[in-house]
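Example record

The entry below shows one chain as it appears in the dataset: sequence first, then structure tokens.
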Amino acid sequence: MTDATENDKGATAPAQTAREAAQGTTHFGYREVPEGDKAGLVRGVFSSVAARYDLMNDLMSGGVHRLWKDALIDWMAPRPGMKLLDVAGGTGDISFRFLRRLKGEGHATVCDLTSDMLEEGRRRADAQGFADQLDWVVGDAMNLPFPDRSFDAFTIAFGIRNVTRPQEALNEAYRVLKPGGRLLCLEFSQVTDAMLQRAYDAYSFSVIPAMGKAVTGDRDSYQYLVESIRKFPDQETFLEMVKAAGFSRASYRNYTMGVAAIHSGWRI
């Protein structure tokens, strides 16, 4: 439950309805919810699955998510001394890859809405010897707790579709990047092959929620994650959002016939 909801416990139902109408609604999977509720609902999803989040990623994708994340780092081409902000970075997968590529000559800040995910990431960082090169910050992608022009690179992997207003997150990415800095966004996208789409839909809706129930004890969270993919804009629409945030040389690359895509943009 969000702070706003908790603070409104004493409000009358008509007053709540009026505020929700003014606030607007957004999607949480296939459900329409008040915008102010989505962050709390998303936080609940990832708090529930944090302990087995990385295991489920491997099981759901057959390990292919690792190749997509490697491709993101390849496209970034990190340079020694770079400062990375990894938003919705959760358990640190992107940041660990970035630091391994730089062999200790960089720094990463992982920012996530869910403290349970960050705790899992800290444990992994300690085990892998990265603790001194990482900061872990609880924060909202739409209102980042960092100064303007602070980072050389901004990544968000499988996170922006969970943001209430993705355009605001892209605007914030532009704000916190230094001139010459780069955005890289890895997200599930729209499949380009009709036959694969049918198989992908069958697998997503029939297998993944059941797998989530078996592995994490939580079917509903994985049902939401499957639905949220279908609600996310297609590659071209999201590309226009990247451009609208001010990024130049905006482009994208499809992976696994559009199951995932990486969008890139530069701050001038």
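Notes for this example: The chain is about 50% helix and 20% strand. Residues 50-191+221-266 form a domain with the Rossmann fold fold (CATH 3.40.50.150).
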